[in-house]
Design a protein that fits this description.
Elements (H helix, E strand, L loop, with lengths): L1 H12 L9 H19 L3 H32 L9 H9 L2 H10 L11 H6 L11 H16 L1 H26 L4 H4 L2 H12 L12 H43 L1
Protein name: Kef-type K+ transport system predicted NAD-binding component
GO molecular function, one term: voltage-gated potassium channel activity
GO cellular component, one term: voltage-gated potassium channel complex
């Protein structure tokens, strides 16, 4: 029994597998994505009407699998140093953030999501939080946090540039268009909405300039908006690359 428990611990924590993902975590990952897929699908009334019973049955099965996963993790928790031995380790695990996420993922299967209350259906989507258990996801978050910390000064400068671009362009558009389109561009806050959609290249088209000077301002804002998107993207990409390079270097030195 102890040998089986130790092997289960290796599967649960992905120990002794290097960069590979254990079968236990692969099954868990597939189950998570299937549950999220059907949670999204069932919000379509026609699909819910035709296949609601089948989807509910599948949801019960998924809930059962999540329960088994939770119990497995609970059983091997005392074998991990970070939780401690015996009941103390189990108690610490139950109060850990990832264990709480597991419970949140299980609850939707047993609260009667067939009700018309949309909030009950949406609760199913909370299972996406379980993706946080993925080792690859954890590594990605680590690299992302490193990029934010190491490039914080550059990102602050980029943010200042974007804010200035939004304020200046919206102010100029207000001066150019407020008298012509008071309903759409009659104040700086309204022009700020136009500026955000223009800089982000969304361009909803609900408010557009009609004067020549307004169109010139819009053109310049669009071109400068490319930098507002590209600069922070490049900064974060450099931070990611630096973090991955440091990790590869440390692994190489370890070998």
């Amino acid at each position: 029994m102890n040998e089986f428990r130790t092997k289960l611990l290796d599967q649960v924590t992905n120990n002794n597998l290097g960069t590979q993902t254990s079968l236990f975590n692969k099954i868990s990952g597939v189950t998570i994505f299937i549950s999220i897929f059907f949670a999204v699908l069932v919000t379509e009334n026609q699909i819910d009407y035709q296949f609601g019973d089948q989807i509910d049955f599948l949801d019960w099965v998924i809930g059962g699998l999540f329960c088994i996963e939770y119990l497995c993790r609970l059983w091997v928790a005392p074998l991990q140093e970070k939780y401690g031995k015996g009941l103390k380790g189990i108690f610490r695990y139950v109060l850990s953030p990832m264990a709480i996420i597991d419970v949140i993922a299980i609850i939707p299967s047993f609260i009667g999501v067939r009700a018309e209350l949309k909030i009950l259906r949406v609760i199913r989507l909370l299972r996406i939080l379980k993706i946080g258990r993925s080792e690859k996801f954890k590594k990605s978050i680590f690299h992302f946090n490193y990029a934010l910390r190491s490039k914080s000064q550059e990102l602050q400068i980029s943010t200042v540039y974007t804010v200035l671009l939004l304020l200046i362009s919206s102010t100029l558009m207000y001066l150019a268009e407020s008298s012509i389109q008071p309903e759409l561009l009659g104040s700086i806050p309204r022009c700020l909405w136009w500026s955000v959609t223009t800089v982000s290249a969304v361009g909803y088209g609900d408010s557009i300039p009609v004067t020549a000077i307004g169109k010139i301002i819009a053109s310049v804002t669009s071109l400068l908006g490319i930098g507002a998107i590209a600069i922070p993207t490049g900064i974060l990409a450099a931070g990611f690359s630096e973090s991955i390079g440091l990790q590869s270097k440390s692994l190489g030195e370890g070998d």
